[in-house]
Amino acid sequence: MKYTPWQLPENPFDYVKLISCRDGIGIIPKNKLGCKIGIIGAGCSGLCAAYELMKIGLHPVIYESSKNIDGTPRIGGRAYTYHFPGDPNAFAELGAMRIPPLHRTLKYYMDKFNIDYSQPFPDPLTVPTTLYFEGKKYFIPLGGVLPTFVKKASDAWEGLINPLIKKISSAWDNPELRKKQWQEYVKEYANKSFYQVLYEHGLSAREIKYFGSMGLGTGGFDSLYPISFIEILRLTVCQWEKDQRLIKGGFSQIPETFWSNRRKCQHWGLSSVGQLNNNKPLRAVREIYTPPDPLEKVSITDIDGNTEKYDAVIVTCSLRALEMGIKVNRNTFSDEIWSAIQNNHMMRSGKIFVRTKDAFWKNKSPESTINCTITDEAIRGCYLFDFDNTSSGVICMSYTWEDASTKFHALSENDRVMKCVSILKTIYGEDFISDQVVESISFFWEHAKGYNGAFKLNYPGQYKDQSILFHQPISSSPETHNGVYLAGETISWAGGWIEGAIHSGLDSSMSVIQRLGGKLSGIISKRRDIT
Ligand SMILES: Cc1cc2nc3c(=O)[nH]c(=O)nc-3n(C[C@H](O)[C@H](O)[C@H](O)COP(=O)(O)OP(=O)(O)OC[C@H]3O[C@@H](n4cnc5c(N)ncnc54)[C@H](O)[C@@H]3O)c2cc1C
Q: 391: exposed, middle or buried (C-beta count within 10 Å: 0-12, 13-18, 19+)?
């Protein structure tokens, strides 16, 4: 076996093997066919679980709290493609916006659903790029070289990371050795911050600063300095920052297709998740009640006070949304799991987009106009988008994490846009944008009800909690588990990626099958299959 970094070091389970089984991910006993399973959240995780459970004859019942501007329930969660009202052909990715094809579970579904991810994402250095640091501007044409001070910092980083990657990649074809090597890394790095590891490796304060601005190529990594180094190492070992793609037509297509795709299913015949849900998810969940006897059904109460009982419930909303938005009784989670729910760290993140009359930068020489921008100014990262079916352009004027995101909170929408424009004018000159801006949207996930944060990336010292959360769906045997299964990106090892959200939805679905006395697909020899 070669170095195939699609496998997560902690959970090298082959989900593609599971979902490509012709008869679905498992078999449900006849008397349980049509059984209702409550699923909280219509994001990628919940809808992937719903889709696979529907395929094998169960009835996923979806609850969703987010709404579209017109008040209808919004499908998609943090895969949120916002279409500008003035030109719906122009859109802004408010949540997920890049996919490395190494995310092969997601890739499998996108191929099945004919979702086009062939176009590269306009990441820094893959397009003409401007670096603007400490008041100085550096233009890097396509194929150009980094300014010396950034290159030096980047080389210092390579000196740290390359030997670590080399060591584990040479052990990759031997599951036992790979596991042992990763455990050594966990021991060494899970309790250290990213900053501490850079510092201990001998990077100077300036190198750390410059490396932080440019990061692994996608910018803004200094916002991650307080994060556990093991999160960064996982990301780098798995090469998720490489060959990133955008989705033509927008990321919302992923959850929307899980919802609308009609396919042949056990028990239902031709059906879609939407159809089983009368084309509308149920309302936001207010309460989960788990009876003391694990054989009894779990109750879900929505915000209108309607209560339904389920053989099993999958909770996919972010752990912050669960803690702050849903009342749960003490039987639902052990004290250890509840404490891990409370400790989990979610990043803050905001984006500010404008739609412009046209993609004006396309008709100019790159040196003379706005480019993909990485800067230490408040906007941090700026990306440019154009579309096949409209002349409108879209600029993500600012993409920020953590403190950089917080800086914009107190400003009104208009002031946020004005601040971004003023910074971009400093970089590109007074008239670069002139009267181009037509409409705007800004979104800060830590402010959004039902999310309360952007994505999981844990601090040093939280590895054990992460492991507890990830294993919650198999924390006791199928017979004694109380039937409430955690899923969603925040419990996954691959925090911040749809791939992890989908894995967790599939993990919980497997637990549901086992709880109902069903069998997992014959291809799965054990739940934490080491391949
Ligand atoms: C700014 C940002 C950038 C990102 N960039 C990328 C990227 O480039 N590539 C990538 O792969 N991933 C990226 N991600 C991560 C990716 O978006 C998530 O991993 C994924 O969308 C999470 O899916 P989920 O189903 O686990 O959770 P969610 O999408 O959050 O779904 C959970 C759902 O639960 C609902 N909910 C909450 N409370 C309740 C309630 N009480 N009752 C009913 N429903 C409720 C929510 O409204 C939501 O729809 C990014 C995320 C953010 C925020």
A: middle
